[in-house]
Design a protein that fits this description.
Elements (H helix, E strand, L loop, with lengths): L14 E5 L7 E5 L5 E5 L2 H4 L10 H28 L2 H27 L13 H30 L6 H26 L3 H30 L4 H28 L9 H9 L4 E13 L2 E10 L5 H16 L3 E8 L14
Length: about 350
């Protein structure tokens, strides 16, 4: 039974609460305010599944690990090539590649850390470790992008000597590495949003590599070294917006802000449309980690004798409409009218 072991009974003011991360019910009939019925199929494995770990089999892990190893390996080569040739564009492309490697690394780290069980000291487990890592990653990448932009300005004013030949060779190899990485991730991109994000980032990096190859070709053909800082500045401007979004998302999660894709007003309205619910208060929605939201609320109901059905229905609404599976809902009854009369304020 769904409520087994979950009730807080015997409370004098008739308040019941329930935390329901999963259910054993096969299906629930949800009745909205306009009496339309919606049948929601239910399976325990669907309720608690984290979107970050929907594709966590050996194939996905092996593909991501191989892509990460390839990216990190060439990252070292590209930095060495940038120092050798004096190319800022190569260094900027290495920064872009670092962002790709960080994204893949965070994805693998999130899958690993999500498998660690919670403890009495860390009741939510280690989900927030991924967010802390993302925050550090964003700060580092913003610092790198800022340094590249400063150096771009200096080199536009005084273009240095650049070895076009080595720059062209390293940039061409970098383009090949990005294309191979995209090919490795392409097969799993349709099965996981997480993999698809990494796949699109690698494609964006491949476009940056095309720009570096073009700049190197211009330097070799014409000796116009100004092409190098111009391309590096363009790459830095590509890094900044995506990194800023990552930073904002990480800070919002750490501050337990409402997830950007959820509307608190819509959630409250959906709860109030459940027959038997009069009003909702103390509604909170926050993110535990990427793709895993939690919700708590107090629902004032007309009669708690039908509390099991109400709790089942409210939980099913959260799952079906908003994808929230970790819910804690407390049912309350309105106090008698005489108890709601407020006396004079004490002196």
């Amino acid at each position: 039974m769904l409520m087994k072991g979950a009730w807080k009974a015997g409370i004098p003011n008739k308040v019941w609460s329930l935390s329901v991360p999963k259910t054993d019910a096969k299906a629930l009939i949800l009745s909205s305010g306009d009496s339309e019925a919606v049948r929601t199929p239910w399976a325990p494995s669907q309720v608690t599944m984290n979107s970050l770990t929907k594709v966590t089999g050996p194939a996905w892990r092996n593909t991501s690990t191989a892509t990460l190893a390839l990216t990190c390996g060439f990252l070292v080569v590209e930095v060495a090539g940038a120092l050798w040739s004096g190319s800022l564009a190569l260094l900027a492309d290495a920064g872009h590649m670092l962002a790709d490697a960080a994204g893949l690394g965070l994805a693998l780290f999130a899958i690993w850390i999500a498998g660690r069980p919670p403890t009495p000291a860390k009741t939510y487990g280690y989900y927030r470790a991924e967010i802390l890592a993302a925050l550090v990653n964003a700060i580092v990448l913003l610092a790198i992008a800022g340094g590249i932009l400063v150096e771009t300005y200096r080199r536009v004013l005084a273009p240095p000597e650049i070895l076009g030949g080595p720059m062209l060779v390293v940039a061409t190899i970098g383009l090949g590495v990005n294309l191979v990485s995209a090919w490795l991730l392409h097969g799993a991109a349709a099965a996981s949003l997480n993999v698809r994000a990494a796949y699109l980032e690698v494609l964006a990096d491949a476009l940056s590599s095309v720009g570096v190859v073009a700049a190197a070709a211009i330097v070799v053909a014409t000796g116009w070294t100004l092409a190098d800082p111009l391309v590096s500045g363009a790459i830095a401007f590509v890094i900044v917006p995506r990194t800023w979004r990552l930073l904002r998302q990480a800070v919002n999660i750490l501050l337990e802000g409402t997830p950007a894709h959820l509307d608190l007003g819509e959630i409250e309205e959906a709860m109030r449309r459940v027959p038997g619910v009069r009003r909702v208060h103390d509604l909170h929605v926050w993110t535990l980690t990427s793709g895993r939201e939690a919700m708590s609320a107090h629902a004032v109901v007309a009669d708690v004798r039908d509390s099991e059905r109400l709790l089942q229905t409210l939980h099913a609404v959260m799952h079906a409409r908003f994808g929230i599976d970790h819910t804690t809902i407390q049912l309350e009854t309105e106090p008698p009218a005489v108890l709601r009369i407020q006396g004079p304020n004490p002196v």
